[in-house]
Amino acid sequence: MSFRRCLLAVSAVLAFAGGLAAPATAQEDLIFRKSTVWKMLTPDDKLAVYGVDDPVVEGVACHYTVPEKGGVSGMFGVAEEVSEVSLACRQIGPVKIKEKFSQGDVVFRERRSLIWKKMQIVRGCDTKRNVLIYMVYTDKLIDGSPQNSTSSVPIMPWGGMGEVPKCSEWVR
């Protein structure tokens, strides 16, 4: 077996094992899709908007938009999707942090190619300003993309609620 084949085999095993060891993440909800490129015999290229609730922070929701390739490769689910993703996160109710978290913990993860590429939404806390920070990016086993999007959610009082939680008290 050549060195290159050996490296690819080891990489595939590590990628698979990494997927098994991944923490539980949020479930996405498709909000809507809009076609951007019409294709006659195969599915169109589209922009899709999804919603995700943070599984650890109640009262925060994120929406992200991703391009979805059509054509033959998109029809069979083997297209490598591009890295451009936009993200907006907002407080949608009283914030309740359920458990301690680390800076950069994964909120949501999705495969963007058959094996190598994945998109991730991660969470952090700006302890000085009491603001939750969410960042979306894509990475590959060998090289990722510098393209990313960031959204911040200041933790504010909601309705007649008393004190707001301090995210600094929940960061490990």
Explained architecture:
The chain has 172 residues and is mainly beta. Helix content is 13%, strand content 44%. The strands form two sheets. The protein has a four-stranded antiparallel sheet with strand order 1-2-3-4, with no helix packed on it. A four-stranded antiparallel sheet has the order 5-6-7-8, with no helix packed on it. The radius of gyration is 19 Å and the shape is elongated. The relative contact order is 0.16.
Write the layout of secondary structure elements.
Elements: H1 3-20, E1 28-37, E2 45-53, E3 57-68, H2 71-75, E4 86-97, E5 105-111, E6 118-126, E7 131-139, E8 148-154
Antiparallel strand pairs: 1-2, 2-3, 3-4, 5-6, 6-7, 7-8
Oligomer category = single chain
- From the spread of the alpha carbons, the general shape counts as elongated
The tally of helices reads 2
Query: Could you list the spans in which at least 5 consecutive residues all have pLDDT below 50?
Result: 3-24
Total DSSP E strands? 8
Structural class: mainly beta
| Strand/helix succession | HEEEHEEEEE
User: Overall mean pLDDT score?
Assistant: 79
Q: Mind describing the biggest β-sheet?
A: 4 strands, antiparallel
Estimate what percentage of residues fall within beta strands.
35-45%
User: Measured on Cα atoms, how large is the radius of gyration?
Assistant: 19 Å
Q: Name the strands of the widest sheet in spatial order.
A: 1-2-3-4
Helix percent reads: 10-25%
Distance between the termini: 44 Å
